[in-house]
Amino acid sequence: MLQDTARRLEKLEAASPLLVCNDEHRFLAAEQMRQVGIEGALVLLEPVARNTAPAIALAALHAIGNGADPLLLVLASDHFIADADVFAEAVTQAVDLAGEGKLVTFGITPTRPETGYGYIRRGRQHGACFVVDGFEEKPNCDTASAYVSSGAYYWNSGMFLFKASRYLDELERHEPAIVAACRDAMASPRKDGQFLRIDEAAFVACSSKSVDYAVMEKTADAVVVPLRTGWSDIGSWSALREAEGTDEQGNVFRGDIVAVSARGTLARSESRLVALLGVDDLVVVETKDAVLIAHKSRVQDVREIVEELKETGRQEHLTHRDVYRPWGHYDSVDCGDRHQVKRLTVKPGAKLSVQMHRHRAEHWVVVRGTARVRKGDATVVLTENQSIYIPVGEIHALENPGETPLEVIEVQSGSYLGEDDIVRFEDRYGRS
């Protein structure tokens, strides 16, 4: 969905996107951009989550940092939009309005009474758009029906277009403390490859507030441009089921699924066979980390599962099998008290840091591609089915000199196998 969001920009005269995400997702986000041909997209890293108003403020401060004042098109990464051409037309209509100093939001023409979305109430017409007359919270069913019947309400999409300076001016007028904290956080940003790091302590001190509450509900210059296309804020698995479309039994299946007498069910498998028999209205999601089985009416409550994991001291919500790095990614296939097995995938031309480990040895087996390995003062080249042993304390590095991905099985053994048992001597990605 992040890639789909980036692809929508191809129909617009837009600069390379600036991504705002947390530190843990940085390599995953960068890899997603690389896969769709967007090399070197800047990724601004939030040390902690502080909602959308501060996140947009960081982007705006970066945008005007070199003396420019561009229009910012603010998009979430989890939106389904059926017609990219209609979306591009709506953004094009909004450009002149934003250039005039308006703060533009995009209102989705509702197709049904929806209680899961907020609403925008339109006022008088202003060219191709309408003045915003108010924002409404998620309504009950009767209120939602009245909104849709009136024709004066849109679903609140959470997408915006405005000048960077105008947004900062309005935010400073209504929430000066947020702007002050963001300015402090951006006072001395650190470039780390394609990642931009800000001052953590300053940003932690920032209050958490959405852009709607902080700016859009308070400004006198908010306008709404209607967007008439299939749209969904994919906030749950049931919403994804509706967006993807169903078969004759109301099911949506992705991956290796076998179903007999199943109805109204979304099943998604990433790594193994999932079999369904005589079940209705379920959401079944299989990943390498865990399996979720929920009634589709309860999928919005998945946070309760996360809270249970936290309270019982489990790590599944924090530690994942697939972990992304600037050189590629690894999959933790197996783990025991004194051993761990990983499958490393190294991108063409990429190289892991020159490093050593104090507590573990490693055995590498090449299963695909060509590896250039530094072991102490020696350098060797390995091809498929060849292997090498790296003892504890040996300085080493792994590189892919080829033009296809390198896949290596890594067997670790030792008294401690944590990721922090790394002493780096050289790293082309600037990691310490």
CATH-derived topology of the largest domain? Spore Coat Polysaccharide Biosynthesis Protein SpsA, Chain A
Count the helices. How many? 11
The overall pLDDT, averaged over residues, is 93
Beta strands, count: 29
Structural class: alpha+beta
Strand order of the largest sheet: 19-20-21-28-23-26
**Low-pLDDT residue spans:** none
Integer-rounded radius of gyration = 25 Å
Measured by DSSP, the beta-strand proportion falls in 25-35%
For CATH, the homologous superfamily of the largest domain is named as Spore Coat Polysaccharide Biosynthesis Protein SpsA, Chain A
Number of domains: 3
Shape: globular
Assembly type of the shown chains? single chain
Overview of the molecule:
Helix 3 crosses helix 6 (164-174) and helix 6 (164-174) packs across helix 7. The two termini are 32 Å apart. By secondary structure, the protein is of the alpha+beta class. The chain contains eleven helices and 29 strands.
Short description:
By secondary structure, the chain is of the alpha+beta class. The protein has helices at 2-8, 26-35, 52-63, 84-99, 141-150, 164-174, 176-185, 200-204, 211-216, 237-244, 302-311, and strands at 19-22, 43-46, 71-74, 79-81, 103-108, 119-126, 129-136, 153-163, 190-192, 195-197, 222-227, 231-233, 252-254, 257-260, 266-269, 274-277, 282-286, 291-295, 322-325, 328-335, 339-346, 354-356, 360-368, 371-375, 378-382, 387-390, 396-399, 406-414, 423-426. The chain has eleven helices and 29 strands.
